[in-house]
Amino acid sequence: MIDLLSALGLAIALEGVLYAAFPGPMRRALMSLTEISDQSLRMGGLAALALGVIVVWLVRG
């Protein structure tokens, strides 16, 4: 459970860095999401999920 909370905190911190360092581009990126189809967002999310699981599996070994 500690690892899960640590990972969640790290993800939030990394996202915060992006908003702090690049507020304009992040706003444009979020606005462009409304133009992408649900199917494309779903496939991108699944790809990110798979990549994340693979990275954790390789690191944790």
Which class do the helix and strand fractions yield?
A: mainly alpha
Secondary-structure element order, N to C = HHH
Helical fraction? over 70%
Q: Give a short account of the largest sheet.
A: none
Please give the radius of gyration in angstroms: 14 Å
Task: Indicate the overall shape.
Answer: flat
Number of H- or I-type helical stretches: 3
**Would you report the number of β strands?**
0
Mean pLDDT: 94
Question: Explain this structure to me?
Answer:
The chain is mainly alpha-helical and about 60 residues long. About 85% of the residues lie in helices and about 0% in strands. It has three helices and no strands. Helix 1 packs across helix 2. The longest helix has 23 residues, at about 40-60. The two termini are about 20 Å apart.
Considering the chains and any ligands shown, give keywords for the structure.
61 residues, mainly alpha, 3 helices, 87% helix, flat
Topology of this protein?
Blueprint: H1 2-21, H2 23-32, H3 38-60
Summarize this, please?
This protein has helices spanning 2-21, 23-32, 38-60.
